[in-house]
């Protein structure tokens, strides 16, 4: 049970304070409503969050319509005397929050306090979606209920198993709607209906799929689809049960919003700490401790994901997946930066396969149509994470070029990364334009010779003409002849170790150009 006094005390830590109105500080708050100008349906609640309202007078008027006990509005203090008088007359306490305060933060605090304050002694209260599913099932005369998110993943289900069909059993066991049934619903236009309408829809049975009848309704916050609520039934609901279903969808939306607001706050804190660590700013040991990670044996894993025709959906799904669950239930800590998810993974100094196994588990947890590539940085302690991040980025680029291969790890691919850096130098125009290799390349283009290929094979063979000839599939005398012609075209000085090394580097730098 939460009182006005407790709500004000907690919000005060975020710059909010009780500014006026008439309510005893001991009044109990049992419900909450968020202002939504796009939803004309009347809503009521003890706490009214005036999201999008800048004028306290307007917020008080809306709170009165919602029969609220307290209104939270972002506005500078003090409260105008006329507004204070109107609030006192309506019996509404006015809490003013700093205009710079984040609504997501304020909403998360308010939802957590008001809704969790109503939990039962057993811990199953209104914030428990399973309890909500049980309550709905009872109100709908024992029908089985499943609550899913917008990707058809199971969030909660009722404990009733009377008349459970095969699809419900497979959905609960697999934690998501089976692909064959999802395809059936897509063909019938069920998902189009959920995206566009708040009206309940009856889904006809399909014995071939093991599917009984269903009533389904969208769970929505404003225009945003949060999920769906499914109820087993042989026939369409009559008006009374349709109203119960509609009320249930609105209640489920409050739970999902509160859960997301709380999760988003936790993700933001985690993401900020990880970002500062991989950028090398701040007190690394202290931040690692806050994240609950060991100070050594860490690797940065860089992940990118894509969904056809959707620029951001893949990476957002990946970030949500790797940050879902309590800290102790997942091994890494992650940040979303631009189009890349960075995860700090405690896998020890040598365990590359442990990192690859984790990447495979992320891949398995994403929908089948999401493509995933990854790069694994070298082992590092807290202070060396920026270097591991750079290595992960370069390994990621290699995996993007060859996504059919396993995720690239720095320990096994440092040579390819060195060559990639050389090519980047060449691409930036920082390689000499009149080097022997550049001259031989121009000669090949102008005269159709094979000087560059011959020089590369000879250097790879450490000057052994026979080995180079075998690699080129020519006679050894041909290699000797070409070497003489090369020396005529440009002085090679192949008898000098530094010159030979420079030739090898220059050849490696131009490999991506197809030479």
Describe the model.
- This protein is of the alpha+beta class and 515 residues long.
- The chain folds into 4 domains: 2-116, Udp-n-acetylmuramoylalanyl-d-glutamate--2,6- Diaminopimelate Ligase, Chain: A, domain 1; 129-258, GAF domain (Beta-Lactamase, 2-Layer Sandwich), CATH 3.30.450.40; 292-414, Alpha-Beta Plaits, CATH 3.30.70; 436-513, Arc Repressor Mutant, subunit A.
- Helix content is 48%, strand content 16%.
- The strands form 4 sheets. Strands 2-7-6-5-4 form a 5-stranded mixed β-sheet, sandwiched between helices. It has a 5-stranded antiparallel β-sheet with strand order 9-8-12-11-10.
- It is elongated and about 105 Å long.
- Mean pLDDT is 83; it is low at 118-127.
- InterPro entries: CdaR-like_regulators, PucR_C-HTH_dom, PucR_C-HTH_sf.
- This is Helix-turn-helix domain-containing protein.
In short:
InterPro entries: CdaR-like_regulators, PucR_C-HTH_dom, PucR_C-HTH_sf. The protein is of the alpha+beta class.
Strand and helix map with partners:
Elements: E1 2-3, H1 4-12, E2 17-20, E3 28-29, E4 32-34, E5 47-49, H2 56-65, E6 70-74, H3 81-90, E7 93-97, H4 103-116, H5 129-139, E8 145-149, E9 154-157, H6 166-174, H7 179-188, H8 190-196, E10 201-203, E11 214-221, E12 224-232, H9 239-279, H10 284-291, E13 298-306, H11 313-322, E14 333-337, E15 340-346, H12 352-365, E16 371-376, H13 385-401, E17 408-409, H14 410-427, H15 436-447, H16 451-460, H17 465-472, H18 476-489, H19 497-509
Parallel strand pairs: 4-5, 5-6, 6-7, 16-17
Antiparallel strand pairs: 1-3, 2-7, 8-9, 8-12, 10-11, 11-12, 13-15, 13-16, 14-15
């Amino acid at each position: 049970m939460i009182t006005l006094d407790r709500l004000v005390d907690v919000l005060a830590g975020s710059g909010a304070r009780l500014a006026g109105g008439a309510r005893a500080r001991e009044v109990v708050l049992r419900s909450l409503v968020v202002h939504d100008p796009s939803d004309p349906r009347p809503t009521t609640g003890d706490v009214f969050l005036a999201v999008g309202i800048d004028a306290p007078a307007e917020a008080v008027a809306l709170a009165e319509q919602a029969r609220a006990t307290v209104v939270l509005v972002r506005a500078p203090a003090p409260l105008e005397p006329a507004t204070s008088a109107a609030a006192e007359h309506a019996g509404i306490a006015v809490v003013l929050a700093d205009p710079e305060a984040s609504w997501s933060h304020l909403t998360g605090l308010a939802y957590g306090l008001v809704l969790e304050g109503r939990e039962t002694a057993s811990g199953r209260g209104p914030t428990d979606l399973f309890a909500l599913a049980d309550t709905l099932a009872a109100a709908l005369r024992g029908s089985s209920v499943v609550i899913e998110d917008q990707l058809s993943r199971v969030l909660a289900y009722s404990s009733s198993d009377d008349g459970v069909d095969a699809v419900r059993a497979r959905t609960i066991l697999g934690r998501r709607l089976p692909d064959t049934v999802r395809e059936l619903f897509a063909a019938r236009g069920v998902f189009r209906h959920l995206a566009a309408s708040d009206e309940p829809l009856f889904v006809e049975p399909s014995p071939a799929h093991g599917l009984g009848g269903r009533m389904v309704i969208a769970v929505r916050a404003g225009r945003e689809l949060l999920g769906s609520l499914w109820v087993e039934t042989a026939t369409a609901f009559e008006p009374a049960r349709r109203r119960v279903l509609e009320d249930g969808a609105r209640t489920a939306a409050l739970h999902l919003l509160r859960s997301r607001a709380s999760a988003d706050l936790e993700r933001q804190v985690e993401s900020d700490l990880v970002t500062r660590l991989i950028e090398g700013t701040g007190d690394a040991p202290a931040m690692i401790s806050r994240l609950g990670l060991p100070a050594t044996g860490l690797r940065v894993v860089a992940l990118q994901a894509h969904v056809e025709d959707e620029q951001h959906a893949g990476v957002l799904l990946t970030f949500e997946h790797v940050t879902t669950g309590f800290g102790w239930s997942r091994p890494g800590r992650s940040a979303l930066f631009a189009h890349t998810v960075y995860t700090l993974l405690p896998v020890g100094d040598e365990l590359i396969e442990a990192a690859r196994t984790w990447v495979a588990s992320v891949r398995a947890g994403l929908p089948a149509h999401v493509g995933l590539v990854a790069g694994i940085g070298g082992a590092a302690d807290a202070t060396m994470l920026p270097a591991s991040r750079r290595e992960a980025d370069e390994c990621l680029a290699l995996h993007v070029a060859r996504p059919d291969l396993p995720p690239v790890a720095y320990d096994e691919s440092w040579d390819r990364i060195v060559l990639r850096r050389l090519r980047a130098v060449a691409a930036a125009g920082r390689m000499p334009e009149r080097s022997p290799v550049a001259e031989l390349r121009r000669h090949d283009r102008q005269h159709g010779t094979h000087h560059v290929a011959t020089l590369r094979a000879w250097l790879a063979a450490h000057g052994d003409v026979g080995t180079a000839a075998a690699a080129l599939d020519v006679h050894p005398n041909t290699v000797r002849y070409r070497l003489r012609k090369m020396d005529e075209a440009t002085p090679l000085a192949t008898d000098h170790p530094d010159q030979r090394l420079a030739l090898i580097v220059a050849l490696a730098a131009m490999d991506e150009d197809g030479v």
